Amino acid sequence: METAVLPAFEETVTRNGLTLSPIGIETLQVNVTRLCNQACHHCHVDASPKRTEQMDRATVDRCLEILARHPTIAKLDLTGGAPELNPHFDHFVVEARRLGKHVMVRHNLTVTIDGHPQTGESKRHLPEFFARHQVEVISSLPYYQQFFTDKQRGNGVFAKSIEAMKMLNAVGYGQPENGLELNLVYNPVGAFLPAAQKSLEEQYKRELANRFGVTFNRLFTITNMPINRFRKDLIRLERYDDYLTRLINSFNPAAAEGVMCRSLISVGYDGRLFDCDFNQMLDLSLPPESGATIFDFDLEKLTRRQIIFDQHCYGCTAGTGSSCGGETAV
What we know:
Blueprint lengths: L8 H7 L11 E5 L25 H13 L5 E5 L9 H10 L3 E5 L3 H5 L11 H7 L3 E5 L5 H8 L3 H14 L11 E5 L10 H16 L5 E4 L6 H9 L3 H10 L3 H5 L6 E4 L5 E2 L2 H5 L17 H5 L10 H4 L13
């Protein structure tokens, strides 16, 4: 059973003398689909091969209009589901790069091997496509050993991930200073905080190189958010309160100041705007006065908005912090 005695996130922020207001919009993070070739236990999107939600071409083109209009929004962060399964994905990438934007793709690696789960369309062109357009590839790999990765993401996922990494390495990814970045994401397997990012990155690089001959650039550690599929598992195991208490007790003011919602806007597949991808999955959309959708996007209003916080925000502020780019404090 959940209790109601745990302190609200905003109370903790105020008690620590912080004011977490927006500092600008550097990144437009766009969730283009809930469809995925996997159904991972920790997935905060509840993505799976059965989902049908897709961003349409008109909404994609509106996002591109916003990027063209605002030079200060320098980054496009494409996510899903498996974003490559959206039929307008290639168009989105090509046009954003034509605008000079830095494009990041949250790539699960295995979609290259599995292809489209509903149509069977091959996705083996992705490594060459990413390289041609100098896309930063950010890929989840829960651990450098098969057992823990497959436990979290499904049988056979680890082997497919290594195969896809080798394909990315073959076109130049994961090599130092060549402009083709392959960055990995670590999520703990279970209700734990991630280990220190730097030391874990060293382990990953050593083990993956020695065992499989694959290389990558950086490792991002991300805390599992107590929402959706992961939250249901915690409640089923009667560990939700324990996990949230652990996050609360690990609150770090320095990490809180670096939370991604201060410099990012999240766009849903239907064009609605959110403070972050986690708020999007909880349907905590922005109010009309801030500009509720990409079609009434107003940069000035968005930089004056009040960010919507809730208990899951403790996940981003625990320990050294957690964001889409890994640690937020050292």
